[in-house]
Every structure is written in structure tokens, then in C-alpha cells.
């Protein structure tokens, strides 16, 4: 299928480009972030990828696969050579939304729905028309700049099924979370150039990252600088468990809460407590 594409420079967005693509099929999302931006768990990168019959792919190859298999009006945004977010809005009515929003150089792809969105919007002083993706951005901005609460406490307030990938282009920060009920599946893996790829399409990530992929753990959040943690059990450490595929080969890792461990948390108060400083007070 021949693709038509428009490339537009986003006004006021240095090194940020918007691309709209017309194709057909299903609705998914994709985020790819260069190794220099993220501190991905080392256990996610399996040595078996080097000897696998299916080799990891480069960023442009993964993006092309996304474009060729997705729905009408798919689009993606490139942030220089460091990051990209791709999204394909659905033309059908689903219980769970797939939404894309951008506010002041912060961009979010949100999947799912929040039952208490109206209450949350009122709590944060947001308009009634604020959707889930916009709420995540506004909550992030509020807590990043002046909020007294850590991220795990905020995520615990979200009622519903959700998964989101957010990128702060100003700070080069990646933030990912998956709801506790597991209804919105996310998958992550390591591409050929060491980039971190994240999608709700398991087949895309598996084909892109060879043996170096895994499901993103539910009830957890990932920050590009501070790593992976459970927002349900913020005082516990995460433990990597080997994943063995049908060929008997280690394939990335599953990450579970280590009930026997305890994170060393420092008390945080005032403006220093924000989404970049993980965890609750010990």
C-alpha cells in the first residue's frame, strides 16, 4: 500500500515534527526513546537477541511497521533524533479510549478510561472538558512544579483501567504507567540501537525487539531517570524474573514486587516533592 504523508514543523517546538499518515487497519500506539534518555532495566535486554533468527530492528524500521499496520489518520511526532510518539485514533466506539494530547511541550498517549475523571478535574482545578490524556499532563505539571505529593500517591487516585506513555520534551523525561487491573496491556523492549520501545501491541514489540521484550508490569510506573517501581507497593523493590519462551530461551524478564524487600525512602516535603522524586515517605 502506498502511503501519503505530510510533514509539519510544530510552531514553537524546537526539533519537534508532526507527521500524519493515511493507511488502514487497527488502532495502536508506539513510543521509542533513545538510550541516552532512559535508564531501562538491564534485565530487559536479553543476550539471546544476538543469536535469534529474528533480529532487533532500528527505530525507523519499527516506525514503518507501525505505520503499515495501523488505521486511518495515524500520526507520529519526532522530537529531534531522541524520541518519537505515534498514535492511531480509532474510528469506532470503544469503552476504552485511545487519546493523544500535548500541552506546553509535554505529550501523552493515554489508553483506557478513568471513572473518577470529573472528580479529579475538579480536584486539580481543571475544566469539565479535560480528557484523560490532558489530565495526566496537567497533574504531572502541577506536581512537577509545586505539588507536595509523590507520583505513587497520585496514581493510586486513578480509578479505572489505564495505561499511558508521557514525554516531557523540555526536560527529556519519559514517564510510563499501567493500571492495576491489567485491562490495558503495555509491552516494552530494547531495539537494535539500544532504544526503549513501548507499545500496546505485543506483536509489534516482539517483532521489533527479538528476545529483548516483556510485558510492562501492571500497577507500576517507570521514570526515565529513576527506573521502575510499583505505585501499589512503593516501599517494595521490583525483582526481575527470567522469562522463558517456547524455544526454551530467556526472553527479557518479568518484573514483580519483591515482598521481602524495602526501598530506602527519604522524607520529602514542600516543593521538592514532585513526580521526579519517586515513592512515599517511609
UniProtKB/TrEMBL annotation:
Positions of the DUF3700 domain: 30-257
Top-level division of the source organism's lineage: Eukaryota
SMART domains in the cross-refs: DUF3700
Gene3D superfamilies attached to this UniProt entry: Glutamine Phosphoribosylpyrophosphate, subunit 1, domain 1
CDD domains per record: Wali7
Alphabetical list of InterPro entries matching this protein: DUF3700, Ntn_hydrolases_N, TSJT1-like
PANTHER family associated with the record: ALUMINUM INDUCED PROTEIN WITH YGL AND LRDR MOTIFS, NUCLEOPHILE AMINOHYDROLASE-RELATED
Name this polypeptide is given: DUF3700 domain-containing protein
UniProt source species: Crotalaria pallida (Smooth rattlebox)
Organism phylogeny: Eukaryota, Viridiplantae, Streptophyta, Embryophyta, Tracheophyta
